[in-house]
Specification:
The complex is a heterodimer of chains A (about 170) and B (about 400).
Chain A lengths: L1 H11 L4 E7 L2 E6 L4 H10 L7 E9 L7 E9 L4 E9 L4 E3 L8 H12 L2 E3 L26 E2 L13 E2 L1
Parallel strand pairs in A: 2-5, 6-7
Antiparallel strand pairs in A: 1-2, 3-4, 4-5, 8-9
Chain B lengths: L1 H8 L12 E5 L11 E7 L2 E8 L7 H5 L8 H5 L6 H16 L5 H29 L5 H20 L8 E2 L2 E2 L7 H23 L3 H7 L7 H6 L5 H4 L7 H4 L20 H24 L18 H6 L1 H13 L6 E9 L2 E9 L7 E5 L1 H6 L2 H5 L4 H11 L3 H5 L1
Antiparallel strand pairs in B: 1-2, 2-3, 4-5, 6-7, 7-8
Classes of the chains: A alpha/beta (about 170), B mainly alpha (about 400).
């Protein structure tokens, strides 16, 4: 399945595939952001490939890179029982085309990416925070967001505000 | 003015559909939402126009915490996501890390993993079959289901020392060998459970109240199920014959014989039938795994990754050093990324792990089946009656701990 998928995509989108990686039997393709929707649409509708199931959308933060975010799409083909992973690179102020027109289930997944990393999605029907409160400041899964904890309250310190430990 | 009032009941950023509608808020503290789920409903009379689930009340930043733990320390965190199917979460995470670091798990450990995750599936479905009918007017079954679940929890306690937060599966195999008394308990389960499942069916399958509340309610078609990325009994209830245990076998599931039950109409009743049939299939798998249990080691012996045998630690200096180093430093898988998913009782639970070559994962993303399944709620209930919302919420079978993480 890897070779067919790769061959077909190379033929159809010769310029938009930047890199293809195979690791532990999984195929990962780094593609151009502009072509995301077309590639997804092709993968979904091609009768031989039929990657019609979107398993997951997630974001990863690499603060040292020029384009600091990666948005990762895990696609699955129910008829071929095969997975493929698409990745795009996004800068901090850029936005990503939403795949909700292709999969309605992407709605919440993209909201979570927005909530956790602050990546904005174009054409998303309802881009609001999902897990964190509306008035939360910051995006916790960014690497520069500190992991903190509050001091445990006992009887000796119950009268002061809990200290935040980094 | 009217619109202003309406907005007050709706979550921030959500516009009301029209001025004539009423906004009803269910939860977050409500017995029928199975946890701290809040659903804001826009109603026209008794007809639901829009349902907006509001989640996140249980958010504890599990994914962020995972980035600061070594690979082995993450396992207890996975317990706390889907807290009624802990062993399935453990298995999904361990398999992902094993894939990342290319570890072969011995056959005995694989069989024990299959046996216990199938028992977990039964335990999770038992919670569902106890609470969901309870919501919609069939109260009797609750105590029966919880009584049987208790036998399974006793079994989990026997193997892992914990009833719920088991963390029994470790990277490379199991935490320890199956203890004495395990066999007789599994035999007991295999002997009694088929009869028990018949009992549940006799309480529900032809029960008139149950049929009236579930038939033709919360319908979703096969195409829509794929569109909404639904998995597990949610998509199988709509007739999609897809089960990761068959399509992408892991942990030697290809050695077992079982069927994938599917529904036809994709309503609440079909999902119920799928889950009941799944329990029977799980018992079939448990029986095969129990009878065909291979001999051998319970954990792969990979120096630096898995702990040396406990007996050696007491006698050999090297083993003691290895034990100490493995616990304190953990291990460092190669640079790379993997996604591994398994069929949990709720659906496809996947772990996407990015490794930067250090002893802590750079990023762990969980694909929570409950989260994705719940996102279809609006599609399932809009245009239906208010009372059907409760029946539909129950039939999705989600756990808020997994949704909010």
């Amino acid at each position: 399945m890897e070779s067919i998928t790769q061959k077909k995509l190379m033929e159809k989108f010769p310029d938009s595939i930047l890199k293809s990686i195979e690791f532990r039997g999984e195929l990962t393709l780094l593609i151009k952001k502009e072509n995301l929707i077309e590639v997804c649409e092709f993968l979904k509708s091609d009768p031989e490939l039929e990657y019609n199931f979107l398993s997951d959308v997630c974001g990863v933060d690499f603060p040292e890179r020029d384009k600091r975010f990666e948005v990762v799409y895990n696609l699955y083909s129910i008829s071929n029982c095969f997975r493929i992973r698409l990745k795009i690179r996004v800068g901090e102020v850029e936005s990503v085309p939403s795949v909700t027109p292709l999969w309605s289930g992407a709605n919440w997944m993209e909201r979570e990416v927005y909530d956790m990393l602050g990546i904005r999605f174009d054409n998303h029907p309802d881009l609001r925070r999902i897990l964190l409160p509306d008035d939360w400041v910051g995006h916790p899964l960014r690497k520069d967001f500190p992991l903190t904890k509050e001091e445990v309250t006992f009887s000796h310190n119950k009268n002061r505000k809990p200290k935040v430990i980094e | 003015m009217q619109v202003e009032l309406l907005k007050r009941g709706l979550p921030q950023g959500v516009e009301p559909v029209s001025e004539e509608t009423m906004v009803v808020n269910i939860g977050p503290q409500h017995p029928a939402t199975h946890g701290v789920l809040r659903v804001v409903l826009e109603l026209d009379g008794e007809t639901v126009i829009k349902a907006i689930p509001v989640v996140g009340y249980l958010h504890t930043g599990i994914e962020k915490t995972m980035e600061s733990k070594t690979y082995s320390q993450v396992i207890p965190l996975t317990d706390r996501m889907d807290y009624v199917a802990n062993l399935s979460n453990n298995l999904g995470y361990c398999l992902a890390v094993e894939k990342l670091s290319d570890i072969e798990v011995p056959p005995k450990a694989q069989f024990v993993r299959v046996l216990l995750t199938e028992l977990t599936r039964i335990a999770s479905h038992l919670i569902w079959i106890g609470t969901h009918p309870h919501d919609i007017g069939v109260a009797t079954i609750f105590l029966y289901a919880f009584r049987e679940r208790e036998t399974l929890l006793d079994l989990f306690e026997l193997v892992s020392g914990q009833r719920m937060m088991t963390s029994y599966f470790r990277i490379g195999g199991l935490a320890k060998d199956i203890p004495e008394g395990f066999n007789s308990m599994v035999e007991n389960v295999l002997k009694t459970f088929p009869q028990r499942i018949d009992d549940y069916e006799s309480l529900l399958t032809r029960n008139r109240i149950w049929l009236m509340r579930t038939k033709g309610v919360g319908i979703i078609s096969k195409e829509d199920a794929i569109d909404y990325c639904l998995s597990g009994p949610m998509s199988r209830g709509s007739g999609l014959k897809w089960d990761l245990r068959k399509s992408n076998p892991y942990s030697s599931y290809d050695k077992f014989e079982f069927d994938i039950p599917t529904g036809e109409n994709g309503d609440v009743f079909d999902r119920y039938m799928v889950r009941v049939k799944e329990m029977r299939q799980s018992l079939r798998i448990v029986k095969q795994a129990f009878e065909g249990m291979p001999e051998g080691d319970f954990v792969a012996r990979v120096p630096g990754v898995t702990l040396p045998p406990k007996e050696e630690v007491f006698e050999s200096m090297e083993a003691l050093i290895f034990h100490f180093k493995t616990i304190v430093d953990g291990f460092s898988p190669p640079k790379g990324e993997v996604y591994h998913s398994i069929e949990s009782p709720k659906g496809e639970i996947g772990f996407y792990i990015v490794s930067d070559g250090t002893n802590k994962p750079y990023r762990v993303k969980v694909r929570p089946p409950s989260f994705v399944n719940l996102s279809a709620l609006n599609r399932l209930v809009s245009g239906r009656l208010l009372a059907d919302v409760i029946a539909t919420i129950g039939s999705i079978d989600f756990v808020l701990g997994e949704i909010d993480r």
